[in-house]
Specification:
By secondary structure, this protein is an alpha+beta fold. The protein is built from two helices and five strands, in the order βααββββ.
Amino acid sequence: MTEIEMWTFDRFSPGLAFGEIAVPMDGARRARWETIFGAVEGDGLPRGMLVAGMMEAYIRAIQPRPNGNVHAAQSLGSLSKELRWGDTVVFSVSCAAKQEKKGRYWVDFKVEGRCVDSVVLDGTIRSIWAA
């Protein structure tokens, strides 16, 4: 078995794509959501579920990761109100920018979620990378 190289600051470059992660908004996810937040009326997907999907895609796309990273900020450009439970959102994750500042490694990741042919989420996650 080949060991996969850890993602370190030096390996990131703006424009580097980490691939696509499909996140089905299925019954199992709905059940977990409702355990935390209570019953959801109708078939409309709560907007917060898109943010949860964005975070899942980010974590799954960039592996393995060093311990000690800090989620410093995030921004959301658009969130769709049109999604339904049962839809699948495909998230693409890429490196948007990186900089070393005051001895810390800052990395911005672009995350875009699409359902069919529509962008349903456009966001950025800023991390202080540990290594």
